[in-house]
Amino acid sequence: MFWKIVGGLILAWAAFMVIGSLVGFLVKAVFWIAVIAGAGFLGAAAYGALKGDDKKKIGS
């Protein structure tokens, strides 16, 4: 009975380690995708602001 409990605890620990590493990888991947997307958005916004037509006016 003792070895069944120990085996179950080891199996649960291994499962949590695998699941934790996968979740950690996904969180890091999503973070870096968000950083790259944010930099691209800021770059596009800055380009659009600098490249914008000066002759455009609101209401005209």
From TrEMBL:
Transmembrane annotation, as ranges: 30-50
UniProt KW keywords: Membrane, Transmembrane, Transmembrane helix
Protein name: DUF2207 domain-containing protein
